[in-house]
Amino acid sequence: MNNKKRFSLPPKYILFILAIFCLGAMFVTFATKVSVAPIKNVVGYVIVPMQKGINKVGGWFGDKTLEFKTLEEVKKENKDLQAQIADLKVENSKLLQERYELDRLRQLFELDEKYTGYEKVAARIIAKDTGNWFNTFIVDKGEKNGIKKDMNVIDGSGLVGIVVETGDNWARIRSIIDDSSNVSSMVLSTQDLCMVKGNLELMSDNTIEFEKLVDSDNNVAVGEQVVTSNVSGKYLEGILIGYITEIKEDSNQITKSGYISPAVDFEHLSEVLIIKNLKEQPHTEE
Amino acid sequence: MRRVIMDTIFIVILFLLQSTVFKWLSLANISPNLMIVITASCGFMKGKTEGLLVGFFSGLLIDIFYGDIIGFYALIYMVTGYVNGFFNTIFYDEDVKFPMILIAASELAFGLIVYVFRFLLRNRLDFVYYLIHIILPELLYTIVITIVLYRVILAISRFVDGLGKRGEGQVAE
User: Fold this and answer.
1) Mean pLDDT of successive 10-residue segments in chain A (286 residues)?
2) I need a labelling partner for A265 at 20 to 30 A (CA). Which of B50, B125, B147, B168 fits?
């Protein structure tokens, strides 16, 4: 009982001190853009391997108890796993074959020929944002694999998002359906520019909205492809975002807005490709 | 000391679960908020100090990993833990309804605060939509998880306290 009295600082003082700390930290990170990357990196070294671990055993965290199993059980399991590896090898070669086929087909259709030329890194999504308000996720590749901030992220079908933060062995990606995402883009056929914005209200319908489309000739119709624009500061040109599903004139009679169905299936995303080429641009303010 | 280790393990495990397993188990894109459960539980089970410390570190972990502004979630969770600490005096172990009401209230307050500071301030005015599609589903799901998780936290917490008492007793002799 006595040793409990040793740290008898009243809770309201602790609350006060920590609240000051929080407000200070908020102010520092918000106002001065001081990099907190070192802290994030250290924590990343502890948390990311664990997140990876959880993912590797297929999400069944109970597998942690493996360590306590007897050696024989582990051996038996090892055998099973070996068999599984063999299976996977077969499957892998099949998938490789299919990839070659896909490449061939892509060439045939001259589909997205613009961005097959970039150097890409495949990364696995290992964790998502803890809350339900935003749509960001963590992948298992980081600075050690050459990932840098502002690199574009795609999957086989189109634009997924952008790298907003990196650690040594992880990177955080903000998807284009995230509420705070803005992508400068254009309609492929007419080269008219517009802004594509994520919106939480639309996330469950798996759509995103676009606005500020200047289309004085009324050429843009439903079903047109929308790609990233040539004037975008961070996104490489010509990556497919999605297809227009709805279009309407704004009240100012000049611009148009509407909805886009993204090319990427964000619900079932497990692996992404990070394009290592950064958009080159003169260094100006954001 | 034992409680510090236990709380640390709780925070890390729940954080890992929330960012991985429960994202797969999400219903209609909504996953429960486990961090608020542990924060609120520690608050009313063990008092203001432990509540606010657990809240602070849970929030800080989220800030470091997913936050754009360090300190934002830390502050919210910390205050949540502190306020729950006020109910420590009338807290009674066996009754699961009272903790659930507290956790639900914490979760609701959390949702509202996040909406106001992260969305309303960016001119996203459609409050009813966010209430129906994010805040309330998250609340419901969290309550359902709480029914199970609260008992687990309570059991482990008691077990650890029991260990502590036995240890102290031996030293005293």
Assistant:
1) 56 84 82 71 78 65 51 80 87 85 66 63 82 81 86 84 88 87 84 85 81 78 84 82 86 84 81 81 51
2) B125
Q: Which of B100, B81, B107 is nearest to B147 (CA)?
A: B100
What residues 83-122 of chain B have any CB closer than 8 A to a CB of chain A?
Answer: 85, 114-115, 118-119, 122
Which residues of chain B lie closer than 8 angstroms to A57, CB-CB? none
User: Tokens at residue A44, please?
Assistant: 């990343």
d(Cα B77, Cα B110) in Å, to the nearest integer? Answer: 8
Report the Cα A161 to chain-centroid distance in Å.
5
* A50:B48 CB<8 A: no
Element (H, E) at A264: none
d(CA A286, CA B17): 36
Give Cβ neighbours of residue A149 (< 8 Å, ≥ 6 apart): A163, A164, A165, A166
Please state which CATH number belongs to domain A182-266: 2.40.10.350
ipTM of the complex: 0.70
- Give which of A141, A145, A152, A150 is closest to A112, Cα–Cα: A152
Give residues with Cβ within 8 angstroms of B79, minimum separation 6: A15, A19, B52, B55
Nearest in space to B30 (alpha carbons), one of B150, B140, B129: B140
Homologous superfamily of A119-178+269-275 in CATH? Rod shape-determining protein MreC, domain 1 (2.40.10.340)
Domain boundaries, chain B: 2-172
Distance from CA of B1 to the nearest CA of A (A): 10
A22 to chain B: closest CA residue = B71
A108-153 pLDDT, tens digit each: 555 445 556 677 888 888 888 877 777 888 888 888 888 888 888 8
Determine contact, residues B76/B60, Cβ cutoff 8 Å. no
Flag whether residue A74 sits within 8 Å of chain B, measured between CB atoms: no
* Residue in A55, A53, A45 with CA at minimum distance from that of residue A142: A45
Instruction: Classify domain B2-172 at the CATH topology level.
Output: Arp2/3 complex 21 kDa subunit ARPC3 (1.10.1760)
* Interacting residues of A181 by C-beta distance below 8 A, sequence separation 6+: A161, A162, A174, A175, A197, A198
